[in-house]
Structures are given as C-alpha cells and as structure tokens.
Design goal:
Blueprint (H helix, E strand, L loop, with lengths): L1 H11 L13 H9 L8 E2 L5 E3 L10 E6 L7 E8 L6 E7 L7 E6 L5 E9 L4 E8 L13 H7 L3 E8 L2 E8 L22 E8 L2 E8 L8 E6 L6 E7 L4 E6 L4
Protein name: Quinoprotein dehydrogenase-associated SoxYZ-like carrier
Keywords: Signal
Pfam families: SoxY, SoxZ
Length: 257
C-alpha cells in the first residue's frame, strides 16, 4: 500500500519543468510513416496537447508521463504514445470518452535508451496533434522486476481505485498489480529470460459511459497506475483487464472510491 501511495503522489506532483524538448530524430522519420502511418509531421501546439516528462528519469523502468490540454482545447478521441528508441516503440494506444476532456492523464512507462517520448492525438475533425519530450533514461525495458516471482503471481490482478479533487476537477487513480513483463528481463534466481506477459487490453467505465480504453505493449511499467481528471456521473466504476496469457480481471468500485 505504501508503494502505491508513493506512486500516486509522484504522479500527482506539479508538471515537470519544460527543459527537454524533442530532438531531431531519423528514427522518428521512419516510425512516422511505417508505424504511426502519417505522411506529414503532426502539428505541435502545447495548448491543444502537451506532454510532461522528467529531463532525466530517476528510474528508467518507472518514467512518469503526464498528458494535458488547455481548458478550451479541441477534444481528443484517441492517442498513441510512442517511445522512439524502445524495442517496441508504440507503448500504448488510448481511446478517450467525453468525460476525460480536456485531457489530464498520467501513466508510467519504461524507457530503454535516451529517447523522445511523444504522444500523437486525434482531434474530432480527424486532425493530428503531437507533443513530446526528450527523456534521458536507459535500460528500462530489461530492468528486473521489483518483487520475487511468487509474490508477483499472488498479487496479479489486484486493483485499487480512489478519487480526489484538484483544481476544481475530480481525479481518479486506478492501480493494478501486474508485472508487465517485457520479455527482455531475467529471472534473478534462474537467470533465464522471463516470457513477455503484460496487460494488453484495459477498459475503464463509469456505468455505461467509457472513460478510457488502452491497448498496450511492453513499455507500460510494472504495476500500472493511471491517474486522470474526469467528469463523474455518479455511476460505479468498472474495470476490465486482459493480459497476453489470457487472464481476465473484472472489478467494480463505488463512484467515490
């Protein structure tokens, strides 16, 4: 519980100083066409979409990312989170419900080498908007898991939900126990590679209304934490999660946490 509280406080801290703009990248030039499917560079407008990340990560396996919009920004329907130099660059793809607009959304990711971390959002008219930061971190995708394997298996799928208020908005925090193994880590006892095993599908709703969904790869951090502002409708919060091993978890929480 103490660890999860520490994570929540870290994600809730003020935005990082904007001292690390994205750098020119031949890798991104290739990814933009071949992976993201964009022929042209998306517009960059910090009011429409901004991404905050630390200049130098304290822990490359737990790099906090915060995505925000100005109050009058056009809403986003979906967003792709890309870490240029990670082995699998697309960290996650999100779809957002209207209750999350304007966006204020936080997640933790693994960064494997000094890299731009960028978000490409889709606006209501289909236009693309991009934001990002250059993060100095290395080794995040192969960093060993924080607990022994027996403890990991025993806790897998546990969830917690809490709500609070910040700057006049309701803030929800969802915490899920899962190792999110990347396939690049080694068991510290056997020294054998641990097969990839991560939550690849997640959906969070309040009643029948979708808050957000996620399709993830290997780059979302162990024991994922999602912190986001939303407009509550008074209905219970339901969470559906699936991992690549076929395990499924469904939980419901009272609206107030």
């Amino acid at each position: 519980m103490k660890t999860w509280l520490t994570v929540a406080l870290l994600l809730a801290s003020p935005a990082f100083a904007q001292e690390n703009p994205m750098q020119p990248s031949e890798i991104w030039d290739d990814l933009r066409d071949s992976v993201v499917g964009l022929a042209q560079e998306p517009q960059i407008d910090a009011a429409a979409l901004d991404l905050d990340a630390p200049v130098r990560a304290h822990d490359a396996a737990f790099v906090p990312i915060r995505l925000t919009q100005a109050a009058d920004a056009p809403p986003l329907s979906d967003l792709m989170l890309v870490i240029d130099r990670n082995p699998a660059p697309v960290a996650a793809e999100y779809a957002f419900g209207a209750a999350l607009m304007p966006l204020d959304f936080e997640v933790r990711v693994r960064v494997d080498a000094y890299s731009d971390v960028r978000a490409i959002g889709t606006q209501a008219d289909g236009g693309k908007i991009m934001a990002g930061r250059f993060v100095k971190a290395s080794g995040g995708c192969s960093a060993p898991a924080g607990k022994d394997m027996a403890a990991i298996e025993a806790a897998k799928g546990e969830m917690r939900w809490k709500t609070g208020e910040q700057d006049g908005r309701t803030i929800g925090t969802l915490m899920i126990r899962h190792p999110m193994f990347s396939g690049l880590q080694r068991d510290q006892v056997t020294l054998l590679n641990i097969p990839a095993n991560f939550i690849d599908r997640l959906e969070v709703r309040q009643g029948d209304e979708m808050l957000f969904s996620m399709q993830a790869g290997i780059s979302v951090s162990e024991d994922p934490v999602f912190r986001f502002a939303y407009r509550p409708n008074g209905q219970p919060i339901s969470v559906h999660a699936e991992d690549v091993d076929g395990l499924v978890w469904d939980r419901s929480f009272a609206a107030g946490g």
